[in-house]
């Protein structure tokens, strides 16, 4: 494990070969897997579970209630939320849960409204606003978010007919 000296890492539950770069704050109850890369200026709250082989780019805040499974990519400045009706100094009994399933990619500057699941290997384009559950192996982008295709586990982009750019059809 490599933790930059300018970070405040309070959690003792961080896996082997995980790197935490400068100016990160990780609260005591957060759980982070092995071989993760947590870039500069990331905040991870207490009730957060992060799997192994996860990349979290700079400027991301992950609030209570988030679960990020293995092999996920979180782009720069992605915004997680956890309170559907936030008010100053008024806290819900519990926070809405957000789940990012294995292999999913979330593009830069996307916002994830709390209480939704992004399916396995789904691809969310940069700048999207996620307001609903996203099925596995699908491609979504925009504000509001709309489906624009599919994606294989290996990262081959497909159109709405599940065909690649060469016209080859895939079964997912």
Distance between the termini: 36 Å
How are the strands of the biggest sheet laid out side by side? 1-3-6-9-12-15-18-20-21-22
Main sheet makeup: 10 strands, mixed
SS field, number of helical segments: 0
Query: Stretches where pLDDT falls below 50 for ≥5 residues?
Result: none
Helical content class? under 10%
Strand-pairing-aware structural class:
mainly beta
Give the overall pLDDT as a whole number.
97
Bulk shape: globular
Outline the structure in words.
- It is a single chain.
- By secondary structure, this protein is mainly β.
- The chain contains no helices and 22 strands.
- Helices cover 0% and strands 31% of the residues.
- The chain has a 10-stranded mixed beta sheet, with no helix packed on it.
- It starts with a strand and ends in a 14-residue tail after the last strand.
List the defining traits of the structure above:
mainly beta, 5-stranded parallel sheet, 31% strand, 172 residues
In short:
By secondary structure, this protein is mainly β. The chain contains no helices and 22 strands. Strand 20 (138-141) and strand 21 form a beta hairpin.
Write the layout of secondary structure elements.
Blueprint lengths: L1 E2 L4 E2 L9 E2 L4 E2 L4 E2 L4 E2 L4 E2 L3 E3 L4 E2 L4 E2 L3 E3 L4 E2 L4 E2 L17 E3 L4 E2 L4 E2 L4 E2 L4 E2 L4 E2 L7 E4 L4 E6 L5 E2 L14
Parallel strand pairs: 1-3, 2-4, 3-6, 4-7, 5-8, 6-9, 7-10, 8-11, 9-12, 11-14, 12-15, 13-16, 14-17, 15-18, 16-19, 18-20
Antiparallel strand pairs: 20-21, 21-22
């Amino acid at each position: 494990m490599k933790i930059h000296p300018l970070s405040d890492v309070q959690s003792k539950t961080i896996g082997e070969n995980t790197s935490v770069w400068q100016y990160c704050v990780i609260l005591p109850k957060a759980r982070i897997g092995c071989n993760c890369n947590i870039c500069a200026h990331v905040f991870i709250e207490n009730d957060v579970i992060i799997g192994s082989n996860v990349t979290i780019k700079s400027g991301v805040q992950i609030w209570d209630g988030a679960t990020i499974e293995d092999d996920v990519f979180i782009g720069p400045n992605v915004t997680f939320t956890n309170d559907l009706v936030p008010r100053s100094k008024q806290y819900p009994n519990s926070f809405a849960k957000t789940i990012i399933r294995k292999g999913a990619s979330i593009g830069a500057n996307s916002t994830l409204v709390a209480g939704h699941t992004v399916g396995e290997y789904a691809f969310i384009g940069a700048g999207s606003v996620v307001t609903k559950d996203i099925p596995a192996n699908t491609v979504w982008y925009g504000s509001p978010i709309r489906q624009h295709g599919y994606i294989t586990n290996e990262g081959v982009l497909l159109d709405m007919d599940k065909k690649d750019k060469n016209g080859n059809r895939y079964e997912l």
